[in-house]
Specification:
Elements (H helix, E strand, L loop, with lengths): L4 H13 L1 H7 L13 E5 L2 E8 L5 E5 L21 E5 L17 H14 L5 E6 L1 H12 L3 E7 L10 H12 L6 H11 L8 H8 L7 H12 L2 H5 L9 E5 L7 H10 L4 E5 L6 H4 L1 H11 L2
Parallel strand pairs: 3-4, 3-5, 5-6, 6-7, 7-8
Antiparallel strand pairs: 1-2, 2-4
Helix pairs in contact: 1-5, 6-7
Length: about 300
């Protein structure tokens, strides 16, 4: 979710200015983030955190975007937990999941961990709902996995041009310089991502900031940009199944209309719906609109 040029530039510059302070910070011992009412699956990349809601009905798998976690689905889950079995995943590298980069953070490895978790939970058929990076992963998985009933991709980051040449050149620096991400920076990022600023609460800032208390979180963030840069997602969009659904925000500053239209042109077999005032996070700005579209699809 958080990956446009301006945002990355702010993060990298801030990391350079505060590098001396970080030397002190990194001496502090960190433990895994505490998490209640969830489970960990031992993947090839370390523990993957997930939560399950509901005990009956078809499966819905919820996958967040870059820089986010299962927290982004908090308004969506209550509408479905009585009629569906809902699996909310923290992707490898994000949320409460492992930040270890013992394998390359790429499309194939990220998808493989999701597939192994699905197999572990004996899920045979499922609806997939993904936001931003999670949406792009879902579009790719819809081509590869016949067990997916339908993919609903919310503002999917499915074009390599979303990662600019500037970001590509600066990625090497971020690997060596821990990023100084604090609550004020997260608040500024949310102000850019959400059109209606009144919706941004301290609880929201705290929860989006929480994973970055771990010193390796910034490395996972940068590494995950490789997935967005993978040209195969966009190049194979014509193969996504008929009936795939994509939800867009008219005021999205992360995925501009020019890029969204390229994706839409590549997928005439999909259904496209655009919120007239939302930015990149319709799950925050108008979750009832998202819920209404989901209810029409995940029957």
């Amino acid at each position: 979710m958080l990956f446009d040029s301006t945002l990355i530039y702010i993060v990298i510059v801030a990391s350079l200015i505060t590098s001396l302070l970080l030397l002190w910070r990194l001496r502090t011992k960190y433990s895994p983030l505490p998490e209640q009412e969830g489970f960990f699956f031992e993947s090839d990349c370390g523990p993957l955190f997930y939560k399950i809601y509901g005990k009956k009905g078809p499966w819905m798998i919820l996958v967040h975007g870059i820089g986010s976690s299962h927290y982004c689905w908090r308004h969506i889950i209550p509408e479905f937990e009585n009629t569906h079995r809902v699996l909310a995943i923290d992707l490898w590298g994000f949320g409460s999941s492992s930040k270890e980069l013992n394998l390359p953070m790429n499309l194939d490895n990220q998808v493989e961990q999701i597939k192994k978790l699905i197999q572990y939970l004996h899920i045979k058929n499922y609806y997939y709902v993904g936001h931003s990076l999670g949406g792009a992963i879902g579009l790719w998985l819809s081509i590869k996995d016949n067990n997916m009933k339908k993919c609903i991709a919310i503002t999917p980051a499915a074009h390599p041009r979303l990662v600019s040449k500037f970001i590509e050149k600066m990625k090497w620096l971020a690997r060596w310089t821990p990023l100084w991400i604090n609550k004020n920076l997260i608040r500024r990022l949310l102000f850019k991502l959400i059109k209606d600023k009144s919706l941004i609460s301290e609880d929201m800032v705290d929860n989006y900031f929480k994973p970055y208390l771990e010193p390796k979180a910034h490395l996972s963030f940068v590494a995950a940009l490789n997935i967005i840069q993978d040209k195969r997602i966009f190049d194979h969009l014509h193969e996504v199944p008929k009936g795939t659904v994509m939800l867009w925000g008219q005021k999205d500053q992360v995925i501009p209309l020019k890029i969204a239209r390229l994706i839409q042109k590549k997928t005439p077999q999909a259904e496209h719906f655009t919120h007239p005032t939302s930015g990149h996070l319709p799950t925050e700005e108008d979750y009832q609109w998202v819920i209404s579209h989901l209810k029409a699809q995940v029957k």
